[in-house]
């Protein structure tokens, strides 16, 4: 495998008058181990897509035209592909021979196209393959409306190459435009300027003028309608979901205003949300201008919309200032979790945000226990040599990264921290950042030699550092008291649960001993109706407890939940709990085999390994 040095990262460093990277006095190379492209020597500047979505063949086909700058006079352009069928290639309008290297694990096949110093444009005619991991094709029966098929993409981390021949690395940015043809009764959307009404032709045009990396390329096509929230925000969904989603996201416009007041202007024009069918494997994906999100956050009471705050925050941390490689993933997600909680604090109050911090701390503890307290995978700076970047997509990047920033805030003061972050986003807008470069910037502009944070232990050390902050537990203390009363024999109906949010209920259940007795499960269910809850977070935790206690009255609803929900955050721990007993294993395998077609390919793969 050829490791590449990102020109984008180097240019960002030069712009700050900093070396590429330094750690402990030695140069730390900025290498993206997960692209086969040569974007350091042949720069992809703009992509023009002209593609057709064929639901019968489950295939995207068309052409990708790259405007390039061959600044080094290289003789070959290398691009990433994964099981794409390349039909033909032209260079500056002339047909040229090309080659595809033998596929390598995780990375796919490198596409080699001859170019010259004066080459300005390369066009590739291609089709997607049967194993295009980015694409989930849904039959009408797998959608809410049950009348039309649906397609959506998920390009993060390195799946853009499964539907577009591209330089597929987070540190490589380009602008794009697209012409997308879909069946006439469907609407197409992208991570770009979008239509708000279906047209009669089935041909849609898109434009993204801000440079983005390939993992933020996104496409959806289906029976989709639009509802406005305010002048710059709105929601897309299947018609049967639209009004529920519009109600749930009533505060999204206020979120954008709140975020901008914290860390600078929103630079992407509109901010809209697309609610996908239930098989979507993630909570949300921060595709620019159009967040893709799971319907599992539609709880009816707006109690789970902190997820939207998270995806919105990515408009600054991730989309605006992007991790240079997937080994620097915490620079996207740690910042975003911190920012998300600042948004929620501004909108809902400190005691509300404190609940999010505590639940996140619990997630971090569980992840460290699972990985091992000395595992290098609990470092913020990851080592993903010869591994898939998805191996690093754990709560470490999210929660350890966010708690590190909270510690810096506590040491330096909130006012100084906010000034620093505003300057960071403004000064590095539409650029990439790697870990060592950021740490140097942090020291020069905020820490100024202060060693009390112990940066090395956080970034290049395992586990949870001893100085990790823990927030006050004003609201959870009342929950803990109620749980203790219940476990000591108080009837659930006698507990004071009025006004509890999803977060209080989740904390109440998470800290229960496992398993509870059958009588305890029955008491809780009779009083609080957990088996029938429409809150996905609470339901998932309750079903895990039901499996542990073999509480069979919950099993029918649990199976329905597993048949409809594709979010891996919920599926993985629930299937894992079932796999702990022979009875549970039989149940897990039966349910998985029956409903796996409803899951995204990524979820099918990981769950298939779990239940095998």
- Derived from helix and strand composition plus strand pairing, the structural class reads alpha+beta
What is the CA–CA distance across the termini?
Answer: 31 Å
Mean pLDDT: 94
Please report which band the strand proportion falls in: under 5%, 5-15%, 15-25%, 25-35%, 35-45% or over 45%.
Answer: 15-25%
How many separate helices?
18
Radius of gyration: 24 Å
Molecular shape: globular
Number of strands: 25
Folded structure, characterized:
There is one protein chain. By secondary structure, the protein is α+β, with helices and mostly antiparallel strands. Helices cover 37% and strands 20% of the residues. It has 18 helices and 25 strands. It has a 7-stranded mixed β-sheet with strand order 9-8-12-6-5-15-17, with no helix packed on it. Strands 19-20-21-23-22 form a 5-stranded mixed β-sheet. A 4-stranded antiparallel β-sheet has the order 13-14-18-16, with no helix packed on it. A hairpin with a 4-residue loop joins strand 5 and strand 6. Helix 5 packs antiparallel against helix 6 (350-371). The longest helix has 22 residues, at 350-371. The radius of gyration is 24 Å and the shape is globular. Residues 1-27 have low confidence and may be disordered.
């Amino acid at each position: 495998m050829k490791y590449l040095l990102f020109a984008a990262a180097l240019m960002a460093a030069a712009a700050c008058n900093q070396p590429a990277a330094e750690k402990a006095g030695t140069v730390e190379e900025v290498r993206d181990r997960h692209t086969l492209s040569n974007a350091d020597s042949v720069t992809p500047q703009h992509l023009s897509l002209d593609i057709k979505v064929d639901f019968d063949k489950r295939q995207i086909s068309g052409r990708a035209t790259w405007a390039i700058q061959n600044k080094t006079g290289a003789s070959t352009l290398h691009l990433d592909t994964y099981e794409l069928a390349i039909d033909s290639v032209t260079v500056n309008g002339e047909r040229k021979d090309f080659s595809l290297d033998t596929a390598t694990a995780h990375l796919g096949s490198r596409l080699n196209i001859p170019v010259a110093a004066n080459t300005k444009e390369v066009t590739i005619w291609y089709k997607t393959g049967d194993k295009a991991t980015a694409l989930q094709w849904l039959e009408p029966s797998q959608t809410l409306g049950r009348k039309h098929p649906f397609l959506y993409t998920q390009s993060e981390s390195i799946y853009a190459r499964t539907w577009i021949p591209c330089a597929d690395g987070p540190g490589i940015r380009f602008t794009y435009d697209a012409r997308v043809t879909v069946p006439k009764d469907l609407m197409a959307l992208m991570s770009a300027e979008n239509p708000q009404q279906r047209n009669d032709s089935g041909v849609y045009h898109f434009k993204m003028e801000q440079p983005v990396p390939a993992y933020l390329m996104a496409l959806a096509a289906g029976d989709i309608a639009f509802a406005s929230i305010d002048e710059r925000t709105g929601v897309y969904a299947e018609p049967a979901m639209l009004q529920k989603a519009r109600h749930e996201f009533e505060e999204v416009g206020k979120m954008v205003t709140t975020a901008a007041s914290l860390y600078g202007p929103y630079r992407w024009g509109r901010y809209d949300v697309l609610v996908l069918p239930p098989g979507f494997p993630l909570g949300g994906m921060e595709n620019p201008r159009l967040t893709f999100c799971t319907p599992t956050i539609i709880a009816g009471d707006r109690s789970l919309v902190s997820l939207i705050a998270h995806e919105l925050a990515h408009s600054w941390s991730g989309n605006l200032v992007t991790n240079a490689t997937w080994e620097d993933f915490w620079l996207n997600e740690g910042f975003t979790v911190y920012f998300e909680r600042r948004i929620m604090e501004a909108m809902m109050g400190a005691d509300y945000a404190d609940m999010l911090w505590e639940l996140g701390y619990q997630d971090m503890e569980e992840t460290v226990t699972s990985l091992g307290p000395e595992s290098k995978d609990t470092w913020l700076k990851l080592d993903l040599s010869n591994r898939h970047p998805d191996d690093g997509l754990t709560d470490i990047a999210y929660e350890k990264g966010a708690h590190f920033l909270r510690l810096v805030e506590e040491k330096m003061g909130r006012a100084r921290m906010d000034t620093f972050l505003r300057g960071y986003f403004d000064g590095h807008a539409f650029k990439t950042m790697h870990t060592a470069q950021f740490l140097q910037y942090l020291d020069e502009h905020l820490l100024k030699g202060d060693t009390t944070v112990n940066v090395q232990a956080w970034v290049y050390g395992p586990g949870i550092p001893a100085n990790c902050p823990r927030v006050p537990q004003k609201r959870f203390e009342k929950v803990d008291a109620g749980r203790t009363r219940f476990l000591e024999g108080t009837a659930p109906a006698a507990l004071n649960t009025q006004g509890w949010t999803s977060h209080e209920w989740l904390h109440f259940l998470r800290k229960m001993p496992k398993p509870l007795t059958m009588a305890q499960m029955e008491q809780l269910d009779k009083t609080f109706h957990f088996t029938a809850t429409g809150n996905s977070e609470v339901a998932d935790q309750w079903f895990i407890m039901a499996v542990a206690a073999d509480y069979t009255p919950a099993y029918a609803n649990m199976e329905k939940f597993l048949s409809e929900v594709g979010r891996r955050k919920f599926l993985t721990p629930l299937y894992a709990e079932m796999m702990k007993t022979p009875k549970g294993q039989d149940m897990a395998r039966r349910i998985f085999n029956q409903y796996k077609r409803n899951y995204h390919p990524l979820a099918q793969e990981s769950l298939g390994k779990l239940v095998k």
